[in-house]
Amino acid sequence: MKNEIFISYAWGDDQEPHESREVIVDLIYDKLLSLGMNIIRDKKDLGYKGNIREFEDRIGAGNYIILVVSDKFLRSKHCMYEVLKISEHEDMYERIFPVVLSDARIYDKEDVLKIYINYWHRKTCALEEAIRQAPSLSDIPSVHDELRTFVAIERLLDRFTNMLSQMNTLVPEIHKETDFSALRKALQEQMKIDVATAHKIDKPILQDDRHNKAMDTLQRDQTDNGHSPSFVVYNYGTGDVVSQGVKNETHHHYGKNPSGQK
Prior knowledge:
Layout: E1 4-9, H1 22-34, E2 38-40, H2 42-45, H3 52-60, E3 64-69, H4 71-75, H5 77-87, H6 92-95, E4 96-100, H7 109-133, H8 141-165, H9 172-177, H10 181-202, H11 209-225, E5 231-234, E6 241-245
Parallel strand pairs: 1-2, 1-3, 3-4
Antiparallel strand pairs: 5-6
C-alpha cells in the first residue's frame, strides 16, 4: 500500500465572508492525487455510515497529515480531536504539514488566549454546568468523554499553536502560486527519511561488532604469519584477541583481566 497522506480541515459553510476554506483543500487534493500520491480525505474516503471517530483516530495515527488550519478548525471539536490524537503519537512535528489560513489567529499569544483557549474553556464550563443541572447526565459515558476531550483541547492549544507559529508554513497565496511545491517536497523528503530509518531498523545484525573486530585481528595475523591457528580466544568485552595456538593447550580468560584473577 502506498503511503497514506491525510488532509485534516474544517468544512466550508455559508458563513464564510471570502473564498471558501475548502478551495485550497480541493487544490491540494487534486494536485497530490495527480502525482499518484495516496490522499485520504473524509468526503472521498469516509463513506455512508462510516465511523467518524474511527476515521479521526486513523488520521491521528497517520505518518503524513496535512493540516489546513483555519479559525473554524481551531474551534471544531472534530478537527481538534484529530490534533489530540496526532499529539498522542511520537514525532508530531515531523508528521504534520500545516497550511495556515489568514483567519487563524495563532501568531499573537493574546489572540490565542482570548479567542481559542477561552473558547474551549467556556465550552468546558458550559458542559460541566449542564451536568450539574441534570444529575442524570453524570452516568452517561459519552457526555464525560466529550468533557474530557474539551479539557484536553484547552490544555493542548498553547503547545499546538506555538508549534505552528514557530514553523515557516508559507501563506496560502505562495502555496497556490508555486503549485504547492514546498508542501510536495516536504512530504517526499519525509517519506525518504522514514524509508531509510525503517530499513536501518529492520536490517538484521549478522554478527556482534566486537566479534567482527576479533575476526579482523585474526585475519591480519593469518596474513602476517602465513598460517592459521587451531583455536582463538578473544575478549568479548573489548573484541581483542587474547591468545591463539594449537589444540590441547588450555586458555582461560574472564572479563578484561588476562591473568584470570577475580
